[in-house]
Structures are given as C-alpha cells and as structure tokens.
Amino acid sequence: MTNRTIAFIGAGNMAAALIKGLVEDGYPADNIIASDPDHKRTDFIKECCAIRTLDENRTAVLEADVVVLAVKPQALPQIARDIAGAVGNSKPLIISIAAGIQTKHLAEWLGEDVAIIRTMPNTPAMLQTGTTGLYANPNTNEDQRNLAESIMRAVGLTLWVDSETMMDSVTAVSGSGPAYFFLVMEHMISAAEKMGMDHNSAKLLTLHTALGASRMALENPEDPSVLREKVTSPGGTTAAALAVFNESGLEQIIEDALTAARDRSIELSSQVNGEQA
User: What backbone phi and psi angles, to 5 degrees, belong to 118?
Assistant: First the structure.
C-alpha cells in the first residue's frame, strides 16, 4: 500500500486527522498530497506532517492512485466536475468523506466507470479513535476496498455496509453519536453539582467513568446488557437509578432520537444531491 500516492482534495480537520494518522502509522509523507485554496490549511498540514501540497486540484489528481474528497458537501459538485477530466485520465480510486453525497451522484460528476467508496467518519477520528462506515460502488475491486479500509483505519475502527441506504443509519449511530454521549456527560455533571459537588470533581468523575465503562465494553466479549446486569445489585444504588431511566422510557427516547437523526440524514442527503426530499 505504501507505494500508492494519496491526494487529499481539501485540507480541513478531517483530512488533517487522516493525514496525521497515516504518517504516524508509517505511511511515507512523500506519497501524500493535499490540495486546498486556503493556504493556511495547506501550510499547517505541510508543517505538521511534512507532506506535499498543491494549489491545483487537477494536478494533484493526475499524480494520485487514490483521491480523497474531503470538502464540504455543498462545494463537492463543482469540484468534482472540475477534476472529472483528470480522474478520467488517471483512473484513481475515489474516497469521499463528504456527508450525504451519494455514490451515484459522484459518478454523474466524475464518470460512470469510476471506482468510488463513500465513507462516514466521526469526530473522534481527530484523536485516531474514530469510527468510519464505508460503502463501495460496483466499480470497486477487492484491492481498492482493502486500500480504502487501510486508509480509514489510520483514524480508528472501520465497518463496511452492503447497502448505501445504511449509511444514513451509520450517521445516526456513530456520525452523530459522540454528541449523545456528550449530552449524557453534561447532564451527569450538572446533576452532581446540584448534589453539592464542585464542577471540576463532577467533570473528572463523569469523564473517567465514561472512559472506564467504554473500555470495559470494548474489551469484554459480553454484550453491554450483560455487563449492566453484572454491576447492578438488586435493591442497590445502581438499580434505583436504572429504575428511573426505565420508568422515564429511556429506551424509547433513544430509539426515537436515532430514528430522527437517520431521517434527517436522508432528508439532507436528498437536498444536497438535488433530489426531492
């Protein structure tokens, strides 16, 4: 893989996270290019990771085996059309991290025979602890799938989906997911303060409890439901708290929230792709 040239079109935060992850994993910096009209972004990435930077997207594409589209969804249609000729000449694998842009529309802009992999990373990717959903269009082969997975694994876990419609569910669970946990942390800290704890102590206890629980769930083969049962003594403090959650309909609240996020993802995807929502 390390002999492939990867060009990033766009040098924002997610591109920077991927580039940093690749370089820290030992990928040759000389084989990574970033192109962005914002020189502050390219200067930052060049200084941070010692990669090559360019002003011209088409030049970057012509040098690349893999092109990572890391621009805002609203800007992607025009950028994709601008580089379509270069893509047709060099035939790179296209990896899109633009939220909501469907592979069929990328193919319309770039060429119907282009190998395209759509991804949905989440913000913890900036700490190399992200989660990325991937979907490959029919033009991609096994080598290209493996290549895309290797690139996205530089910032965390990867998970393939067989249907592109599942990318909306990926968005609801992991794309938006960090905010759900931040909200729980926020309310736990607030509740602790109302019980007399100072803010710093409440924050420290809450965040480390979240970290510990997450590590236990990740490193234990048993489902979280089993782990919950194991730490819940009948008639104890944990049972009292969980009873309130259950009486308040927490399970239905979470289901409704994720469904709303998925439905909004579908709606936004229709809007950004110019379809009837």
Answer: -95, 135
Query: Distance (Å, rounded) from C-alpha 176 to C-alpha 23?
Result: 27
Q: Which residue has the tokens 């269009």?
A: 137
In the block, which residue shows the tokens 């379509």?
Answer: 84
Residues 141 and 187 in one domain: no
Mean pLDDT is lowest, of 24-33, 38-47, 252-261, for 38-47
Annotated binding site: 9-14, 57, 70-73
Binding site for NADP(+): which residues?
Answer: 9-14, 70-73
Under a CB-based contact definition with an 8 Å cutoff, are residues 193 and 199 in contact?
yes
Of 46, 133, 49, 57, the C-alpha closest to 96 is 133
Q: Is residue 154 part of a domain?
A: yes
Residue 270 lies in a domain: no
CA distance 238 to 249: 17
Same domain for 150 and 67? Answer: yes
pTM score of the predicted model? 0.88
* DSSP code of residue 163: S
Which residues does the annotation place in the binding site for NADPH? 57
One domain, residues 116 and 200: no
Q: Which residues of 193-211 are buried (b: 16+ CB within 10 A; e: fewer)?
A: eeeebeeeebbeebeeeee
Give 11: exposed, middle or buried? Use CB within 10 Å, 0-12, 13-18, 19+. buried
The tens digit of pLDDT for each residue in 198-243 reads 999 999 999 999 999 999 999 999 999 999 999 999 999 999 999 9
Range of the domain at 66: 6-161
Residue 59 sits in a domain whose CATH number is 3.40.50.720
Q: Are both 191 and 137 inside the same structural domain? A: no
